[in-house]
């Protein structure tokens, strides 16, 4: 037995692959393969599928405690509806959460898990549904239009459902944080005949705020980027329209590009002389960090309540 064990122990292990030959730089010091990986969250978060499933089960649990949301249409298309979780009090502030999913996945019903945080603190929580990019010809423009119209609908109808239109906030994660950035830099008077400052604050977690690098990545396989789209939907290029304080966050286990996007956005907002706060989540990956929005003591939950000037825990 000992001899056999020794022989087994002496067998050579597998030979590790050699270093990959680096190609020409495509963006900063990244070659094409590195840039593609930098915008592919599965490379950086091996537990992605587990976490996305958990969003759904946590959302089911929250609905079991709070009750189902009220559903409203903000537009004519079947997908143009939103879930509203009520605060249980009059003239309450509102948080509109824009979900992620790489612009091509995600449903409002699976992003109810932060609702309890806001409802218990005395706020409405709203999650709109909107089209997936592959269903609208590969363009992000219809999605941006839908999210903007959802926010405009909430503002215009707030008093009807008990909310305070003067305390409307937006939050978003991943591609939803990109769209939240678009909302925050919308020209509301020109495009919607609404006051410029209808949004009073924003929380953008793990998003993209300039699309130049994204356009060069493999995401261009399913997003049909154009110069117009890149310019119009890069929030970092429209900071003259930003009228609200914002919080920007990322996790240290996210890809270097997502971390850079957040830092560059914060630097640009700071240079524009506008209020911004950067939060860095130590040891969180891209899909873990958004779960902290579900607790008043979590990385994002605490930041959201502070931004909205709400108490922690039951209000």
Layout of secondary structure:
Blueprint: H1 2-9, E1 25-27, E2 30-31, H2 32-38, H3 41-44, H4 48-66, E3 70-73, E4 81-85, E5 92-98, H5 115-120, E6 124-128, H6 141-161, E7 163-173, H7 175-184, H8 188-192, E8 201-205, H9 212-216, H10 227-232, E9 246-251, H11 256-271, E10 276-281, H12 299-307
Parallel strand pairs: 5-6, 5-7, 7-8, 8-9, 9-10
Antiparallel strand pairs: 1-2, 3-4, 4-6
Helix pairs in contact: 6-7
Please explain how this structure is put together:
There is one protein chain. The chain is an alpha/beta fold and 315 residues long. The chain has one domain: Rossmann fold, CATH 3.40.50. Helices cover 37% and strands 17% of the residues. The protein is built from twelve helices and ten strands. The strands form two sheets. It has an eight-stranded mixed β-sheet with strand order 3-4-6-5-7-8-9-10, with helices on both faces. A two-stranded antiparallel sheet has the order 1-2. Helix 6 packs across helix 7. The longest helix has 21 residues. The N terminus is likely disordered.
């Amino acid at each position: 037995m000992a001899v056999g064990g020794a022989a087994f122990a002496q067998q050579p292990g597998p030979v590790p692959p050699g270093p990959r030959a680096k190609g020409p730089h495509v963006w900063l010091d990244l070659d094409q393969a590195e840039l593609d990986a930098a915008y592919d969250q599965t490379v950086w978060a091996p537990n992605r599928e587990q976490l996305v499933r958990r969003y759904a089960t946590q959302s089911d649990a929250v609905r079991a405690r709070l009750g189902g949301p009220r559903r409203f249409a903000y537009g004519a298309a079947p997908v143009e509806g939103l879930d509203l979780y009520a605060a249980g009090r009059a003239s309450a502030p509102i948080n509109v959460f824009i979900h992620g999913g790489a612009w091509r996945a995600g449903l409002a019903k699976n992003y109810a898990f932060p609702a309890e945080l806001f409802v218990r603190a005395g706020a409405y929580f709203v999650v709109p549904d909107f089209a997936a990019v592959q269903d609208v010809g590969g363009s992000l423009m219809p999605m941006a239009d839908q999210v903007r119209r959802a926010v405009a609908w909430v503002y215009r109808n707030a008093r009807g459902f008990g909310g305070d239109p003067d305390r409307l906030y937006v939050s978003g994660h991943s591609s939803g944080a990109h769209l939240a950035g678009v909302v925050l830099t919308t020209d509301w008077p020109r495009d919607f005949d609404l006051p410029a400052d209808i949004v009073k604050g924003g929380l953008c977690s793990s998003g993209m705020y300039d699309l130049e690098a994204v356009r060069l990545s493999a995401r261009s396989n399913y997003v049909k980027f154009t110069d117009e789209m890149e310019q119009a939907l890069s929030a970092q290029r429209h900071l003259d329209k930003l009228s609200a304080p914002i919080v920007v966050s990322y996790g240290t286990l996210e890809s270097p590009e997502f971390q850079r996007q957040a830092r560059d956005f914060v630097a640009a907002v700071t240079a524009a002389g506008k209020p911004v706060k950067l939060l860095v989540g130590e040891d969180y990956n891209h899909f873990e960090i958004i779960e902290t929005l579900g607790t008043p003591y979590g990385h994002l939950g605490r930041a959201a309540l502070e931004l909205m000037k709400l108490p922690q825990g039951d209000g």
